[in-house]
Amino acid sequence: MQKKMLSLFMLVALILIAACGNGDGSDNGSSENSNENTSEAAETTSGDVAIDGSSTVFPIMEAVSEEFQSSHEDIRVTVGVSGSGGGFEKFINGETDISNASRSIKEEEKSALEENGIDFTEIEIALDGLSVVVNEENDWVDELTIEQLKQIWSESSDVTTWSDVNEEWPDEEIEFFSPGTDSGTYDYFSEVVLGENQIKRDAALSEDDNVLVNGVTGDQNGIAYFGYAYYLENKEDLNVVPIVNGDGEAVEPSQVTIQSGEYEPLSRPMYIYVANESVQNDAVYDFLTYTLDNAGTLAEEVGYVGFTEDHYQEAQGKIDSLR
């Protein structure tokens, strides 16, 4: 009797072991699925990417960040607008991963970054044509030379009215609207047009290009300058002024004339500056890779001019070398 009970007990035990083991292999499959889910979770990148700087570069980086975040929901990208100079201040303080600039970095900014132990990489992201604009009712300014721009905008100049520039133009006081002193556009204009001269003291300054647009659209005698994208966005309400280049030709900014260099000397590259250490962050690296894959297309969608594919591939090589 005892032997029969022992045999029955062993039989039940074997049945239970077989049931727990799922001899059909389903246990192994479940384990594989679990590993796959864990692997997929590990591959999902999350984190923050902090960007600030130029209002001119902003439309490109805003477009890139919006497209990027639609497919990378776990990465948060913030794009601020403090002007090129203001952006570099934050970059120097280690507050941002990427700094947008519509001018190249200054020597004093390089020195400050070095003092703070921040290595960086410069990337030219697109091309811009700094656009000089007047009110849509202004039908007398058909072109300007760089020398005339200098006379109009320089504080040391006696020019205050349109007739001071050309006696055939109205005897009306010119109203000036300029990017602020933290703007790379301001710096570029000062370097190329004003030289050692100071800008008009009564010029209304703003880091927000939309404020400049509103200033000119609201004043028949207004004049301003800003990035090509802001002109395109508001071209129905503004007149762009053709600028006489080195060949003596009056040229309007366009994608063709900016890329060819015909619109000079007001064509210029735009930059992003990347903190090398930030590239170790997968979120920043993924964002930069996406930026370089799409910057050319998105730059043209928002009104700027992209570089060739080779240019962006070379920039990607720089980023990859930092990993």
Can you walk through the features of this model?
The protein has helices at residues 2-21, 26-43, 58-71, 83-92, 107-115, 146-153, 162-165, 184-194, 209-217, 228-233, 255-260, 282-301, 309-320; strands at 47-53, 75-79, 98-101, 120-129, 131-135, 175-179, 204-206, 222-226, 238-240, 243-244, 250-251, 267-275. It is of the alpha/beta class. The protein folds into two domains: 46-127 and 269-320, Periplasmic binding protein-like II (D-Maltodextrin-Binding Protein, domain 2, 3-Layer(aba) Sandwich), CATH 3.40.190; 131-265, Periplasmic binding protein-like II (D-Maltodextrin-Binding Protein, domain 2, 3-Layer(aba) Sandwich). The termini are far apart. Residues 25-51 are annotated as: Disordered. This is Phosphate-binding protein.
Describe the structure concisely for a colleague.
By secondary structure, the protein is of the alpha/beta class.
Which regions are unreliable across 5 or more consecutive residues at pLDDT < 50?
Answer: 1-42
Give the termini distance in whole angstroms.
74 Å
The helix-and-strand class reads: alpha/beta
Number of domains: 2
- What is the third-level CATH name, the topology of the largest domain? D-Maltodextrin-Binding Protein, domain 2
Overall pLDDT level: 88
Report the total helices: 13
* Biggest sheet architecture: 5 strands, mixed
> What is the H-and-E element order?
HHEHEHEHEEHHEHEHEHEEEHEHH
- Helical fraction equals 40-55%
> Any idea what the CATH superfamily of the largest domain is called?
Periplasmic binding protein-like II
